[in-house]
């Protein structure tokens, strides 16, 4: 079969726009790394109320399509055209979660191979025990951006991990500290862990934890999360934890805290059209 050249295939028009100008398609709670990529990415408007967002190059999802709303009354032919528009403006990869119905529809119609990625965990609604003792609870505090030691320690910890394991670039780390979203865990007069706590829509708050390498296998991460999860629950909210990669230890830790899976992430390659 002779296929037409790619440049001859009709595309759906996509115009750059602001994310604030579209009716968002994502449902809370969200994956923190995907939401950060969405907020920092480029948004494109499609006809009849549709849009899509492409993540920045410097993110966990480099130039992935990370959010999409299909045009209203979209036809089968337009979905094919849209697939080429998406590839033209991105890396050709699509990330979505289990409640992104429009992304599911696109993958189903185009017969795209889909790979299951990491789950999103939620803090249990009713919990009658604590894993962290008073000593750990008293060692957790909000990082003070005006305290040089706390600021330096927070930035150092947050940037020490690669992005795919919860680390941050320095600009984002400074922003989190200055906006009061970073908790610090101390042990023997030094800070050994940092956590970013970000409020989402509805009642959810995202938690991302990094620990000093010397303390990663000693149970401090679970106790740190236990303290933060309880603080969030007391405030009438619910903690969610997303994992950007498949780490068995993190999975077991979340399960050990009584957290349950409420969503899954997926990726698909838009170029693989049957």
Structure description:
The protein is an alpha+beta fold and 274 residues long. The chain has two domains: 117 residues; 135 residues, Aminopeptidase (3-Layer(aba) Sandwich), CATH 3.40.630. 30% of the residues lie in helices and 26% in strands. The protein is built from eight helices and twelve strands. Strand 10, helix 7 and strand 11 form a beta-alpha-beta unit. The relative contact order is 0.17.
Structure class? alpha+beta
Q: State the share of residues found in helices, binned by percent.
A: 25-40%
- By CATH, the architecture of the largest domain is named 3-Layer(aba) Sandwich
Kindly provide the name of the CATH class of the largest domain: Alpha Beta
Shape summary: elongated
Number of domains: 2
Extract low-pLDDT stretches.
none
Largest sheet: 8 strands, mixed
User: How many beta-strand runs?
Assistant: 12
CATH superfamily of the largest domain: Gcn5-related N-acetyltransferase (GNAT)
**Average pLDDT metric:** 86
Beginning-to-end CA distance, first to last residue? 14 Å
Count of helical segments? 8
Output the radius of gyration.
Answer: 21 Å
What is the CATH T-level topology of the largest domain? Aminopeptidase
Order of helices and strands: EHEEEHEHEHEHHEEEHEHE
Q: Please list the strands of the largest sheet in the order they lie side by side.
A: 5-12-6-11-10-9-8-7
Strand % is 25-35%
């Amino acid at each position: 079969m002779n296929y037409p050249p790619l440049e001859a295939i009709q595309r759906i028009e996509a115009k750059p726009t602001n994310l604030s100008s579209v009716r968002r398609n994502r449902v809370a709670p969200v994956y923190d790394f995907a939401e950060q990529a969405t907020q920092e990415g480029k948004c494109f408007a499609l006809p009849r109320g549709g849009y899509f967002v492409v993540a920045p190059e410097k993110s966990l999802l480099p130039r992935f399509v990370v959010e999409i709303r299909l045009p209203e009354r979209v036809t089968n032919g337009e979905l094919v055209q849209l697939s080429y528009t998406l590839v033209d403006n991105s890396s050709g990869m699509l990330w979505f979660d289990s409640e992104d119905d429009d992304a599911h529809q696109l993958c189903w119609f185009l017969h795209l191979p889909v790979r299951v990625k990491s789950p999103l965990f939620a803090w249990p609604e009713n919990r009658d025990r604590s894993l962290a003792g008073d000593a750990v609870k008293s060692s957790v505090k909000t990082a003070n951006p005006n305290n040089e030691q706390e600021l330096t320690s927070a930035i150092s910890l947050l940037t020490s991990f690669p992005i795919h394991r919860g680390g941050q670039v320095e600009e984002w780390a400074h922003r989190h500290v200055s906006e009061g979203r970073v908790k610090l865990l101390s042990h023997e007069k030094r800070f050994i862990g940092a956590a970013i706590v970000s409020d989402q829509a509805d009642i959810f708050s995202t938690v991302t934890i990094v620990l000093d390498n010397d303390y990663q296998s000693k149970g401090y991460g679970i106790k740190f999360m236990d303290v933060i999860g309880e603080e969030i629950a007391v405030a009438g909210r619910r903690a969610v934890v997303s994992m950007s990669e498949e780490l068995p230890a993190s999975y077991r830790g979340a399960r050990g805290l009584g957290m349950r899976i409420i969503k899954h992430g997926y990726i698909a390659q838009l170029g693989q059209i049957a």
